[in-house]
Amino acid sequence: MTRGKQKIEAQKKNAEKNQKNKGSQFEARAVALKIVCPVCKVQLANQNQLVDHYGSKHPKEKPPSNSE
């Protein structure tokens, strides 16, 4: 067990360490999902997922060309 100044420093160090690990996954998700389906506005990660999405959700329509 630590006492006094050592204890306070250890608590500060642990608080900083734990604070860095916390975060929202929404930010990471927004960065990863770059392509939006123009028909239903679903966000997708890449062109291959968009083609698969069109094949299953919008079979009568053609997927847009690769605009990236």
From TrEMBL:
<protein>
    <submittedName>
        <fullName>Zinc finger, C2H2</fullName>
    </submittedName>
</protein>
<keyword id="KW-0539">Nucleus</keyword>
<feature type="domain" description="C2H2-type">
    <location>
        <begin position="35"/>
        <end position="63"/>
    </location>
</feature>
<keyword id="KW-0479">Metal-binding</keyword>
<feature type="compositionally biased region" description="Basic and acidic residues">
    <location>
        <begin position="1"/>
        <end position="19"/>
    </location>
</feature>
<keyword id="KW-0863">Zinc-finger</keyword>
<dbReference type="Pfam" id="PF04419">
    <property type="entry name" value="SERF-like_N"/>
</dbReference>
<dbReference type="Pfam" id="PF12874">
    <property type="entry name" value="zf-met"/>
</dbReference>
<dbReference type="InterPro" id="IPR013087">
    <property type="entry name" value="Znf_C2H2_type"/>
</dbReference>
<dbReference type="InterPro" id="IPR007513">
    <property type="entry name" value="SERF-like_N"/>
</dbReference>
<keyword id="KW-0862">Zinc</keyword>
<dbReference type="GO" id="GO:0005634">
    <property type="term" value="C:nucleus"/>
</dbReference>
<feature type="region of interest" description="Disordered">
    <location>
        <begin position="1"/>
        <end position="24"/>
    </location>
</feature>
<dbReference type="GO" id="GO:0005737">
    <property type="term" value="C:cytoplasm"/>
</dbReference>
<dbReference type="GO" id="GO:0008270">
    <property type="term" value="F:zinc ion binding"/>
</dbReference>
<keyword id="KW-0963">Cytoplasm</keyword>
<dbReference type="InterPro" id="IPR026939">
    <property type="entry name" value="ZNF706/At2g23090_sf"/>
</dbReference>
<dbReference type="InterPro" id="IPR045230">
    <property type="entry name" value="MBS1/2-like"/>
</dbReference>
